[in-house]
Amino acid sequence: MPTAFAHEFNTPVYKGKVSFNTGLFINGQFVDGSDGTTIDVVNPTNGKVITSISEGTPKDVDLAVDVAEKAFETTWGLNCPGNKRGLLLNKLASLLEEHTDELAALEALDNGKAFNVARNGDIPAAIACIRYFAGWADKISGRVIETTEEKFTYTRHEPIGVVGQIIPWNFPLVMFAWKIAPALATGNTVVLKPSELTPLTAIRVCHLAKEAGFPPGVLNVVTGYGNTVGSAISSHMRIRKIAFTGSTLVGRKIMEAAAKSNLKNVTLELGGKSPNIIFNDADLEQAVNWAMFGVFFNQGQCCIAGSRIFLQEGIYDEFLKRFTEKSQSIKLGDPFAPDTYQGPQVSKIHYDRIMGYIDSGKKEGAKVHIGGERHGNDGYFIQPTIFLDTHPDMRIVKEEIFGPVSVVIKFRDEEDVVRQANDTVYGLAAAVFTKDVNRAITTAHKLKAGTVWVNCYSVSDPNVPFGGYKQSGIGREMGEYALANYTEVKAVNVNLGLKMM
Predict the structure, then answer these.
(1) 3-state percent helix, strand, coil for the chain, nearest multiple of 5
(2) Confidence band (pLDDT; 50, 70, 90) for 3?
(3) Do the Cβ atoms of 493 and 292 come closer than 8 Å?
(4) At 41, phi and psi to the nearest 5?
(5) d(CA 460, CA 428)
(6) How large is the average pLDDT for residues 372-379?
(7) How far apart are CA 437 and CA 453, in angstroms?
(8) Distance (Å, rounded) from C-alpha 384 to C-alpha 354?
(9) What is the mean pLDDT of residues 154-175?
């Protein structure tokens, strides 16, 4: 019998009881893993175990694929009209909306992000994503192609079948929605692995999906470790598509496994080292506010974090003064405190990794302007950190840190900053702050990044594509572009009068 999680929240921002099964979700049922083992889920605020979840194995992935194939051939895919798929997705979105506070509390509990951030940001974003793709479900269409009058030619955009999905721990529910919504809307069935660090909202949403009425086998969630469950999904011969969000290192392994198995279709959303460029004529107050948000939001655990802040010489001193004051005003602490902005890093391992980067910056000669130390004695908190006096070869300048750490770099002119900004193996995002619209557009066009913001940072919408250049990934998620990830295009040629002699 799978374990159950029961918890009573009695906090200043949320009071309530939760209780739900934490087994694997396969064929519409919660079950133990094949080996009967469990994984502890830890609260990063204090390092204590919250609960245990069932540990999946490659055998469980096989079982999930079996039922997902059956559902695709019988109750989903082309056997379920798009309007019905859309209706079910909208029902799921409505259930998420009803449980907003509970889901935000679960995110705060196992991820460490502030409850108010999750409630006002993450949960609404997940709901909006599901509703957006629900609207696409009955609008998947091909086209008629003119060839000759003796032949009728058209295309169909058909679902792929069983797709595998692996999501990270930094935005657990948002990433869950980003993955399942376009896949289900286009008629695919899903086998998904959430992060073992932050599985609670994914498991809870499985209960809501069952309540919404999704047929058994359409959505399957197998919790487990990357080197077992993740590897099994990546290399499975009957999974025809895999979508992954996470580090570039792991993305390489998934792409290799996909190639070595059945050459499955791959979508990868990977790391970043995004430049945030502030010109002399920028609105300094707004630029400071957006820069703080861009690098320190979500404890810095964002693939799009604007961790390389480029300041033009004329505003360097004044911007740094204001940015320092803004960063020092950030409230660190209990995710369930009303005024908390920054919670703990997600785990001890990740905390140690970030502190390792901070130490390397110090050893390589960079100046710690503020921060650079842990915060408090409990949990995995790190002070917002700003480095100065860096050079391009430092690890803190080149590598993704994924924490509350920024480097501030001075530049002369547009040519200089574009060269520095593009000097990276990544290309996920970038930003430009200026009042000159010509400079904004020309600079944005020169930056090698999948997303460029002008006079804002980290603003996303479900109808806008997201993805990276270079080693930041392959393909695009969100928007109409995401539909192509989950459909095969079939050309049908109907002979109306051609004669073979």
Answers:
(1) 40, 25, 35
(2) confident
(3) no
(4) -105, 125
(5) 13
(6) 96
(7) 13
(8) 12
(9) 98
Between β-strands 275-278 and 308-312, what pairing exists: parallel, antiparallel or unpaired? parallel
Distance, CA of 178 to chain centre: 7
pLDDT for position 165: 98
Spell out a b/e string for 97-108, using b for 16 or more CB atoms within 10 Å of the CB, else e. Answer: eebbbbbbbbbb
Q: List the catalytic residue out of 269, 302, 400, 477.
A: 269
Q: In this structure, what token pair is assigned to residue 91?
A: 């029902």
Helix (H) or strand (E) holding 69: helix 58-74
- For 4, list phi and psi in degrees, rounded to 5: -125, 150
**Could you confirm whether 456 is annotated as catalytic?**
no
> Which of 55, 196, 303, 477 does the annotation list as catalytic?
303
* 98-126: pLDDT as tens digits: 999 999 999 999 999 999 999 999 999 99
Note the pTM of the prediction, 2 decimals: 0.97
Going by pLDDT thresholds of 50, 70 and 90, the confidence category of residue 48 is very high
For 257-264, the CB contacts below 8 A with 24+ separation are 257/231, 258/234, 260/235, 261/234, 261/235, 261/236, 261/237, 262/236, 262/237, 262/238, 264/164, 264/239, 264/240
Strand 29-31 relative to strand 24-26: parallel, antiparallel, unpaired? antiparallel
| Helix/strand/coil (H/E/C) assignment for every residue in 438-453 | HHHHHHHHHCCCCEEE
Give residue 381's Cα distance to chain centre.
22
The pLDDT value recorded for residue 2 is 75
**269 belongs to the catalytic site:** yes
For the sheet with 385-388, list strands across it: 367-370, 385-388, 405-411, 308-312, 275-278, 429-433, 451-454
Average pLDDT, rounded, for the chain: 97
Q: Are strands 265-269 and 275-278 parallel, antiparallel or unpaired?
A: unpaired
What's the CA gap between 150 and 196, in Å, rounded? 57
Structural tokens at position 185:
């809307």
The first and second tokens of residue 18, run together, are 């939760």
- At residue 376's C-alpha, the angle toward residues 304 and 359, to 5°, is 55
Backbone angles phi, psi at 10, to 5 degrees: -135, 75
Read out DSSP for 388-417?
ES--TTSHHHHS---SSEEEEEEE-SHHHH
The backbone torsions φ and ψ at residue 153, rounded to the nearest 5 degrees and listed phi first, read: -125, 130
Distances (CA, A) of 295 to 10, 192, 305, 312: 31, 29, 5, 18
Reading the block at residue 272, the tokens are: 């970043």
